[in-house]
């Protein structure tokens, strides 16, 4: 995975609360193989009106934020279903950082696996950021993961991220390779566990 | 890298199971945990694709089980009408599990059904196990004292390849619900009223232990419903300490230990409940007697209220962001502030899903529907082929059909609409499911969450209804 270090790009002020993963990608698109790209499904139904036309008043449809690589939302972003496709739609659209006061646990964990930074600011800081002229105008803002800083115009914010996730994003680590380096520990665990919990195996196969 | 050698004082059930599964503790605190059961479904194809890309096999096919639930048809003859892409999803699960030597309860299998219904009923879910599945409602299995949580596709791939998962230790929340639920109420009312009270983000980062007399008083089916909805308060997992009720419920189930092995297991399981002085990071106590039959009115599970209440007014909400979300929800739902919830007319009902499709749920709905006729169409989808057979033995299917409802097959069905069973655009559905998100049951669908008895009552009257009124004088 590509390491995440510094991102400098316009940020889309989405501003919604409780953006659930059913909004991020409606279930009916999830049969699509990933190789076809998921970007066009991002917030598919919210972006469109009853006739299926793109709503002019929806931030993501605004020309200013067309090439945004960051999204700013209010609390509980990515709540709901565990679908990792909710991260694919963002990443495939070129958005690799979401800034919000809080995230759905599974969404946040899925983000890390796909190199997307879920950066947390307080609710009041989010309000300030959403009101910041450089954000509104669609000028690039800067997200620096190593220093946990967001700089927008003349304003600077310190964001929060779990230390282990930060390290993983900065290094672009792959979980599976890391786990394989513990093969001996896993073997030892399995051997000891067979005696400790004989009931843990399914009594029946098939 | 150090093993966890910290001296252990009194521990919670959460810590006990965590420690029993810890293989390695990394310097940053993350632990590599052993996974006892992994359930895969049609949506797990992203995970299998990652295995294919690396050219590796499933590490422990004996601990992995395939369950066809999200895309399987749940209406008679519907498989012929399903689009090719949907059929491919179902076939792919069968092919992937066959390729890797994984047992699969696929379409048409006698044990098929929703993973979170099937695994407990087959004895695959046991106290003290660590269980994962690429589905957020995996928290359901916590009802039997398992440590169970939903994971994403990359984690699915990781578990398939290594039978382990990296996690950071969650904070611990104990939610005590003491007192007695009023007659005619269910675990669904309990869960929805909890979420309405604490909000959808409250438990983020926490593992929940549900405790208290109202929780232990629930049947196992009720506990499964309660734990199922943990994710709707933000928590990846919720659990109930196993007790004699749990053990007796599991005894004799096909994949559970049998005979002496089962008795030996019980001895171990009795050590699982939280120690008396165990400390939680957060404690919350609620009174069961304050719980009323609960329905949702908006587009988030926290938008819930007692059936006797009125649609709330966003003008009364002091926090502007919340008020705006309420206005938007009411607009989407086509409701206005101040109207009585019982005046909300519904277009159809759905009884099913991993939340409420077990035999007890179907009995509760049938108790309301018996001898009555539904004013609106509806689909009843049993949670598994096993539940379906049992319901038919009890004659519940006839009650539903005579009431004018459709008796379907087992799967996730109209809860998420992936199999094509959707609520048409603009229609309003009284639903026993878990999410009332915009478009959840199909584009433009409007969902009201409630218990099986309440959904049955809405079917009979054509509007949201206090089911207790329809149960008066009937044996419950």
- Helix content class of chain B: 25-40%
* Count of runs of 4 or more consecutive helical residues of chain B: 16
Structural class of chain A: alpha/beta
CATH class of the domain at 13-170 in chain B: Alpha Beta
Notes on the protein architecture:
The complex is a heterodimer of chains A (206) and B (476). Chain A is of the alpha/beta class. Chain A has helices at residues 21-24, 85-92, 105-113, 123-131, 133-136, 163-171, 175-180, 183-196; strands at residues 6-9, 11-13, 70-72, 97-100, 117-120, 141-144, 149-152, 155-158. The mean pLDDT of chain A is 95. Chain A starts with 5 loop residues before the first strand and ends in a 10-residue tail after the last helix. Chain B is α/β, with parallel strands linked by helices and 476 residues long. In chain B, the strands form 5 sheets. In chain B, strands 5-4-3-6-7 form a 5-stranded parallel sheet, covered by helices on one side. Chain B has a 5-stranded parallel sheet with strand order 17-16-15-18-19. The chains are: A alpha/beta (206), B alpha/beta (476).
Summarize the structure.
The complex is a heterodimer of chains A (206) and B (476). Chain A has 206 residues and is α/β, with parallel strands linked by helices.
Properties at a glance:
heterodimer; A: 206 residues; alpha/beta; Aconitase, domain 4; four-stranded antiparallel sheet; 8 helices; B: 476 residues; Aconitase, domain 3; five-stranded parallel sheet; 19 strands; globular
């Amino acid at each position: 995975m590509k390491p995440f270090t510094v991102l400098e790009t316009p940020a889309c002020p989405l501003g919604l609360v409780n953006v659930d993963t059913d909004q991020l990608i409606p279930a009916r698109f999830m049969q699509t193989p990933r190789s076809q790209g998921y970007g066009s499904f991002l917030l598919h139904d919210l972006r469109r009106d009853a006739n299926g036309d793109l709503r002019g008043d929806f931030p993501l449809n605004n020309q200013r934020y067309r090439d945004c690589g960051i999204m700013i939302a209010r609390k509980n972003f990515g709540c709901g279903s565990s679908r990792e496709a909710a991260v694919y739609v963002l990443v495939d659209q070129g958005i690799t950082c979401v800034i919000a006061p809080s995230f759905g646990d599974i969404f946040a964990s899925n983000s890390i696996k796909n190199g997307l930074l879920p950066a947390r600011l307080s609710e009041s800081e989010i309000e300030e950021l959403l009101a910041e002229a450089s954000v509104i105008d669609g000028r690039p803002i800067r997200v620096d993961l190593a220093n946990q800083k967001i700089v927008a115009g003349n304003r600077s914010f310190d964001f929060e991220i779990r230390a282990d996730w930060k390290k993983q994003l900065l290094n672009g680590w792959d979980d599976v390779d890391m786990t394989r380096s513990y093969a001996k520990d896993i073997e030892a665990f399995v051997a000891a566990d067979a005696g400790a919990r004989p009931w843990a195996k399914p009594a029946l196969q098939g | 890298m150090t093993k966890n050698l910290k001296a252990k004082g009194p521990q919670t059930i959460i810590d006990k199971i965590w420690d029993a599964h810890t293989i390695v503790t990394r310097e940053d605190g993350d632990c590599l945990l052993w996974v006892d059961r992994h359930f895969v479904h049609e949506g797990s194809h992203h995970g299998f694709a990652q295995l294919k890309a690396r050219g590796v096999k499933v590490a422990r096919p004996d601990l992995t089980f395939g369950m066809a639930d999200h895309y399987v048809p749940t209406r008679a003859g519907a498989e012929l009408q399903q689009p090719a892409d949907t059929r491919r999803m179902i076939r792919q699960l069968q092919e992937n599990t066959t390729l890797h030597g994984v047992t699969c309860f696929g379409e048409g299998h006698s044990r098929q059904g929703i993973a979170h219904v099937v695994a407990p009923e087959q004895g695959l879910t046991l106290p003290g196990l660590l269980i994962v599945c690429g589905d957020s409602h995996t928290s359901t299995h916590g009802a039997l004292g398992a440590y169970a949580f939903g994971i994403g596709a990359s984690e699915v791939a990781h578990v398939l390849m290594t039978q382990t998962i990296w996690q950071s230790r969650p904070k611990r929340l104990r939610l005590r619900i003491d007192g007695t639920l009023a007659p005619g109420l269910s675990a669904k009312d309990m869960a929805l009223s909890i979420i309405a009270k604490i909000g959808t983000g409250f438990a983020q980062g926490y593992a929940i232990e549900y405790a208290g007399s109202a929780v232990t008083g629930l049947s196992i089916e009720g506990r499964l419903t309660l734990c199922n909805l943990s994710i709707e308060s933000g928590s990846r997992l919720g659990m109930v300490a196993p007790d004699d009720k749990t053990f007796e419920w599991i005894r004799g189930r096909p994949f559970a230990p049998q005979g002496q092995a089962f008795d030996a297991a019980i001895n171990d399981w009795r050590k699982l409940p939280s120690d008396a002085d165990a400390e939680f990071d957060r404690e919350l106590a609620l009174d069961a007697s304050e719980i009323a039959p609960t329905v949702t009115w908006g587009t988030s599970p926290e938008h819930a209220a007692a059936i006797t209440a009125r649609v709330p007014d966003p003008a009364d909400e002091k926090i502007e962001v919340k008020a705006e979300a309420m206005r938007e929800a009411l607009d989407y739902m086509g409701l206005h502030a101040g109207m009585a919830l019982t005046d909300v007319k519904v277009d159809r009902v759905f009884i099913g899903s991993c939340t409420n499709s077990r035999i007890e749920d179907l009995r509760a709905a049938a108790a309301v529907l018996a001898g009555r006729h539904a004013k609106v169409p509806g689909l009843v989808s049993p949670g598994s082929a096993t539940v379906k057979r049992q319901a038919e033995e009890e004659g519940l299917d006839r009650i539903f059909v005579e009431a004018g409802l459709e008796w379907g097959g087992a799967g996730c069905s109209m809860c998420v609409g992936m199999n094509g069973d959707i609520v048409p655009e603009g229609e309003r559905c009284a639903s026993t499911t878990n999410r009332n998100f915009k478009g959840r049951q199909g584009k433009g669908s409007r969902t009201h969450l409630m218990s099986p008895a309440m959904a049955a009552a809405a079917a009979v009257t054509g509007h949201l209804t206090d089911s207790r009124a329809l149960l008066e004088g009937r044996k419950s």
